[in-house]
Amino acid sequence: MSEPEQSPRAVKSYVVHDALGPDSELQRLLQTAWSKRHDAGVGFRYRLRIERERVIEGQFGFLLQLNKQRLTERRQPQQFQLAAPFDPTKFHFALVDASEVLLELRIDSATNRACASHSKGTTAGQTAVSLLINNSPLTPYHSLVLPERELLRPQVLTLTSLRAALVLLMRLPDRRYRLGYNSPGALASVNHLHLHLLRIDRDLYVQSADLIPIRGFPLLHRLPDLLPAQGFCYVLRDQADLPTVCEGLHRLVATLLERRLAHNLFFTWTHLHESSTSSTIRVVVYPRIRQCANKTACSFNAAFLELSGFVPVGEPSDFEGLTEVSVVRALREAQGDVYGALRDIFAEENPSAATESVIAADKRQ
User: Where is the signal peptide, in residue numbers (predicted)?
Assistant: First the structure.
């Protein structure tokens, strides 16, 4: 028997169990809830319409999309610094209307007992995760992921939030889904812990870029110098790697915070249309030497999407005029010399041998 139709305002609770295989029901619930609200105009500032799209000519294949409404209709960004505490007097996601809530997840895992503060309505070993619409969407199903929303944490990644993000990505069968995070000082808009979930239909350069292993840090690599952005990358090839990757990411984020370095993260599968044995997950961390305290309504930002190869713009002139050279220059100016600033911590293996080993490992998947 089919489920009764729900209104766009109905919120469904769903338990994500410990098994990390694809969960088609989770994806169906997410997409149905998002589409009903979008089609009915419930909660959204505009109806998503990508006017034009092109791949910029060059070796990195930047994906450029024109979305003029995102430029003019989005929520006004807040102004706050890297270490700013949560401020209950400012807008936060506990204040949103119930119509903006897509799903209330309870991610169920014994490993959470070691790292999660219990949220209301959960038991030991469960993490509450709210999925909200992004009311100024960039892509279909663009949503906000809020681990333990009611705990009112500032926009600083926790071990629990990192694990919840990776579990969500592993559970969605469609590998075009990606996750991203902007820290304070790296173009975050709201100082309430959240990540972005988007579906991007094309490959981006970071999915297949060569990687150089970092000595002394299991599963950690860095991007080669010639790429548009500087960043460190954890590679998750197997479910057994999940604790190592989560803990490593958490330590890396803590190191960046200690050094007052803002940062962006991007979570992606390496292969979007292949079987589960042919793809790995990459989590790329982009530190920033130059903080950006707030983002204005400009056409081209340098946040997690742009650093990873997807450039949404709001001005037709930018859509027509941006080149690979101009995009790369803007990203490098925004980020600064990350490798130089962190050279005392991260020592790489032999670059040529390391790169060959990573490529070979990815091809075996």
Answer: none
